[in-house]
Amino acid sequence: xxxxxxxxxxxxxxxxxxxxxxxxxxxxxxxxxxxxxxxxxxxxxxxxxxxxxxxxxxxxxxxxxxxxxxxxxxxxxxxxxxxxxxxxxxxxxxxxxxxxxxxxxxxxxxxxxxxxxxxxxxxxxxxxxxxxxxxxxxxxxxxxxxxxxxxxxxxxxxxxxxxxxxxxxxxxxxxxxxxxxxxxxxxxxxxxxxxxxxxxxxxxxxxxxxxxxxxxxxxxxxxxxxxxxxxxxxxxxxxxxxxxxxxxxxxxxxxxxxxxxxxxxxxxxxxx
Length: 272
Ligand SMILES: [Fe+2]
Hints:
Elements: E1 2-6, H1 19-31, E2 36-39, H2 53-69, E3 75-77, E4 81-83, H3 88-93, E5 106-110, H4 118-129, E6 133-137, H5 143-146, H6 149-157, E7 161-165, H7 166-169, H8 176-187, E8 191-195, H9 208-219, H10 221-237, H11 243-247, H12 256-267
Parallel strand pairs: 1-2, 2-3, 4-5, 5-6, 6-7, 7-8
Helix pairs in contact: 8-12, 9-10
């Protein structure tokens, strides 16, 4: 599997703080079958100065050397989680902010948490018009989208790719509203990729294996592999990703059992 959204770079944001924990995270992910991770730290965090592209590259190179020295079968690529701001395109084109993997034309954009402005969609549109591929981070966790799925449908129609979070799919690991929104998005075939957004090695650990297994049971092996391996790989290679192809829209080969299971998973939030 390929995990496009992680906070494995130590000591730069609210992700792992110690190098030892970054190595534990790498080990844990590799055991789950993750072979490639993109480090996507927040660019601004707390009192710290803005993180530069050079710092990210250097941090990732050091981390890869340690991972290799420990013999962990995992590689980390540089990247960042870009806040949706009015000057996003300009900063990206000036090289101040970085695409996923460092050299691709794919960016991971974190939407605002509380308010969606008229210019928010315009910024994403201008990115796409300029040849960038946009992956929107964890929309199912944002109340602005939980209340208004139509907003996400509009973005997807614009070719924005939605990244659901692994933990949002696993019963008891997220809030009821988040789980419901994640399953609604999957049911409507609007999700392109699943990533862990792991922050630590305990509560917000990398849980890609469990998410894969849940996806496999609820949507079948093809979709599980698509969302956790095939699509992230295509996004890193700069290949065109087509939502209709991912979901094979119109296919009718699914069993009633899978539909029933998905209804249960969507509701199974009491212990969340
Ligand atoms: Fe994140």
